[in-house]
Write a structure and sequence with these properties.
The structure holds three protein chains of three kinds. Chain B is mainly α. Chain B is built from ten helices and no strands. The chains are: A alpha/beta, B mainly alpha, C alpha/beta.
Amino acid sequence: MTRSDSIKAGMGNGGWMLEAENIHKHFGPLHVLKGITMRIAKGEVVVVVGPSGGGKSTFLRTLNMLEKPDRGFVKIDGVLMGYEHVNGRTVELSDARVSLQRRFFGMVFQQFNLFSHLTALENITVAPIKALKIGRTDAIAEARRLLSLVGLSEKENAYPDQLSGGQQQRIAIARALALKPKVMLFDEPTSALDPEMVSEVLKVMLDLSKAGMTMVVVTHEIGFARLAADRAVLIDAGVIVEEGLPETFFSAPKQERTRQFLNKVLDFHGSSLL
Amino acid sequence: MWDWGAFLHYLHNGYLLKGAGVTLALSLACLAIGLVCGTIAALMRMSAKPYLNKPAAFYIWLMRGTPVLVQLIIIYTGLPQLGIRFNVIESCLLGLGLNEGAYLAEIIRAGILSVAKGQFDAARSVGMTHAMTMRIIVLPQAMRVIIPPLGNTFNSLLKTTSLASVISMEELLRRTEVLIQVQFKVLEIFIVAALYYLVMTTIWGFIQKRLEAHFSRSHAPAAARGASPAPNGARAEIEQVLLSHDAQ
Amino acid sequence: MSRTAISIVASVASAIVALGLSVRIAQAACEPKIGHPPLMRKGTLVAAINPTVAPIQYVNEDGEIIGLDPELGNAIAERLCLKMVFESVQFATMIPGLQDGRFDMIDSFMFYTPERAAQVLMIPYGASTLAAVVRTDNKDEIKDLSYFSGKKFAVELGTVDANDAKAVSEALIAAGKPGIDVQAFKTYAEVLQTLSAGQVDGAFIGTEQAYYYLKQGQSFFRIAFSGFDPHAEALAFKESAIAEAVARVLNDMKQDGSFDKLFASYHHCTLPGPYKVVTGPLPAPKCENKP
């Protein structure tokens, strides 16, 4: 069974891995997310594109509750994020319980955000040991496995300051994977990298997608989208403008706004990539 | 007339040395108290909840806005009129400790602010609670920025303890004052005292250097990091990598 | 961090307690004559003393408090079958400290004034005088303080000496002459140091003190005139029970001659008995203070 078949099978069953229903978010008077609904199946890779300030990063952050939605809810593999139903009432979860829920997600940031005072190995093991209470030996063994997965075994005792951007980002991916998340969230993972390091990171992401990880990737890398995505989504001005299969989305978008956006992006990246 | 004999004699006088010991012990104790008060006050000050940040702001404003000498005298001679009586040592620990805490609160707050916001995001997204984030990720990184000004205030504290002599604390300055009455070797004994202070602050200087090195060990000098501008063939390289993975 | 911090503070605080206070302890061997309360601590007489006036009260090289007042205090405690404990306290905080119950008694060369007697219970027992001193290279003949009109004069802060100097200065100004620039310092040694450095032209110190330092070999100053403004010195108390018990002891000591013998060994004036708590103005005692 190919990946797309199993995804379609999952969709058919109604068993969504990730459900975001009517997400609204305000920052003060600014209405940044105006009712976004997205359902993602297990193993699906969704690429989110859009202009900056359009809300795509904010949307990503509401998925793992780094930002709390003002309206709407998020469910991961059937589990409601941030709330629970008690005696017919919806009750907010405490900070400690929401923090634990976040382990279902692995997040990778544009600025890497590695813990600068810890080595690569410690970056990966600190959360499993402290937050998930996993034993030290097990955590270290798993961390080493992940380091070799991203091709950086020899850097386990290096500090982030001693590593290149691409290396830091790969370790950040390993750190996110250490929690055995169900969904990986990528917030413009290669935007801050020097061009020759972009490919090493994209390769790791590609491998992940092939291994069946459910991923939501906010990115400008159209090439990666065409290669790895099962679905492409344009978020602009707080709403989903268009979504569809990458083959049609990038070459023959239906919406005028999508067309305008892609034209600008294509000009920047150069048409050779298509 | 300067008396070398007296100077050398008082240089190893036990009564004075013990006074120096008290100065050192008092400074260390007040630093510890100050660190505890300062950390709590800094975290409260940074909270969005008014019932946390307002009391903290008041404490910092009051203790930094009045002379520590006045604070010591109010605690020692003023409070008893309200029925609260602290002895000399308690008054010193309270006055100097709370005062130090107010200054450290601002230093610690600055240190925490200096830690990039992304660190909070990353820590939260790997499942750490706010308290864990502060303890394991933010405060250790903030230490690098906190140590130099903290070193400054401790250096200052070593000497500020001499104010405690006003409420009869048996530290170095009070003992100096008492000892000069014996043989009237005023200049010699004051210079011995100054030397003792100098030794203590110098030793602290070395310790501070070691602390700074410890908290900076994860930061490589800029030359060690490698990053070169993108060569022209970058795009082609990426294409090749991506196309080679085309398994469809 | 909290556990380490607490143990650091605790061990440091106990180190401070061990090193901190300068104490002089004498043993008691019979049934205490005053109970607790009114004493601060059972079986102990706690006295405040500022050991900065040699030879009346000062420290030796090891920091032990010695001199006339400590000897007097020890003798009193022994007769009351109490343990004597001296606390080294700054002069300025003594009366408030006594009122706050920090000690039982002040035994610190404190001159009797009606203002002080209004705040605490005072028993005058001895007398002392002031000496005006100048640098030895000052060969002028000096009869009284008016010599220092238009000059600088050092005194100890908050004392009768300071008040005397200021009073003379005001009288000079009222008479149309320049006043005295009176500068106050923390202790007598600092007063003398200022004179030695030439920052002032003259200073007040205690007469006994002046003779003590000259005997020690100090040669940078000479006594211009001594025996000035005889003043009674007193013990001070808050609790009348303690004051009365001590007054009884002083009178006993006077009767058997030990009181006069102690003071004579220090060439220090005594007041004629009987000794009791006094208030209001006191006539100037007779005291010449020659060694």
